[in-house]
Design a protein that fits this description.
single chain, 310 residues, alpha/beta, Rossmann fold, 7 strands, binds S-adenosylmethionine
């Protein structure tokens, strides 16, 4: 089904507004040592060892995962968190206040194509897991270029790679097939059975609806060359696209598929620890052994960095 630009934006607003309150819990977003180090690892890959920017703009900030951790890491002094979903921005405001950053963080409800700022307003424009939702990417890159000072940088991470995404189908399929055995071994009840027993029709309905909408909100999976072409076309220099996470994502998707149909409360703590620590281990392995050695296209996530000429 091909959707118009307005339909894509509308789907994104509905989907992300509905997800906002549970978003941090669902994706394990935190502002402690783990969140800070996860964001620092990604920042370092694109922006180098000790990057520092005075004024930054985040595109599709969601609940603030990147902005607030980059601020905690000393990468940015001030940030405007922008998003098409007001629900997400309310969570940013709460979290910024809890971290004592309310004077340095502001929010802006807007889509990623037209911003009410003068040319050259920012030193850094960045985002995580957002470009694949944007219907008019060239227009967005042109706007990022306009908004940056000469010498300013863009940094986007967590974008799905077309090849990496199709390779990840294998562990997902394997996980779904093995899921009944896994549930039996760990004595995890089947979520749909719980629904059949009358314990969760609303949740089931919301889940189905959310799942169906994922296909509407994810409008791109990229080849590395697609991303660099957008940046170059807008006038950026020093464009580099990096692939990250391969074995970590295979491991992660396999486990998520095993768990997908289980009642969350039944999943043992020890299993969650294994899944989480295993993921970190594979992430480390990808970083030291695979990233930079294998072609960017086969990794699950793509990152892009580029500079506006001085
Ligand atoms: C997958 S979430 C990522 C959120 C956050 N960056 C993170 O890493 O947790 C994508 C975010 O992009 C926002 N978004 C989607 N389409 C957008 C658009 N056209 N303009 C601005 N933001 C958009 C969504 O509302 C959502 O908050």
């Amino acid at each position: 089904m091909s959707l118009s630009t307005e339909q894509i934006k509308d789907a994104n607003i509905k989907y992300h507004d509905a997800a906002a309150d549970e978003y941090d819990a669902k994706w394990g977003i935190d502002y402690g040592p783990i969140g800070k180090s996860q964001v620092a690892i990604k920042t370092r890959k694109v922006l180098g060892r000790e990057p520092h920017f005075a004024r930054a703009l985040e595109i599709g900030s969601g609940t603030g995962y990147f902005s607030l951790n980059m601020m905690q890491n000393g990468v940015i002094d001030e940030v405007v968190c922008s998003d098409i979903s007001e629900g997400m921005l309310k969570v940013v405001e709460r979290s910024a206040k809890a971290l004592g950053f309310e004077k340095r963080v502001s929010t802006l409800h807007t889509e990623a194509e037209g911003f009410p700022f003068e040319d050259g307003s920012f030193d850094l424009i960045f985002g995580h897991a957002v470009l694949h939702h944007l219907p008019n990417l060239q227009a967005s890159f042109d706007e990022f270029f306009r908004l940056l000072k000469p010498g300013g940088m863009i940094f986007f991470a967590g974008e799905p790679s077309a090849t990496g995404d199709s390779l990840a189908r294998h562990p997902k399929t394997a996980g779904h097939r093995l899921s009944p055995l896994w549930r039996k071994a760990l004595r995890v009840r089947q979520a749909s059975a719980e629904v059949a027993n009358g314990n969760g029709p609303e949740r089931d309905h919301a889940y189905e609806e959310g799942h169906a909408m994922e296909h509407l909100v994810d409008v791109h999976a990229f080849k590395p060359g697609d991303l660099s072409d957008f940046a170059k076309h807008s006038g950026f220099d020093e464009v580099r696209v990096i692939g990250e996470e391969l074995s970590a994502n295979w491991f992660g998707w396999f486990n998520r598929a095993l768990e997908a149909d289980g009642v969350p409360e039944d999943i043992p703590y020890i299993w969650r620890q294994y899944a989480y620590r295993g993921y970190l281990g594979f992430q480390w392995f990808d970083r030291v052994a695979l990233e930079g050695r294998l072609p960017a296209s086969i990794f699950y996530n793509l990152m892009i960095g580029a500079q506006k000429p001085e």
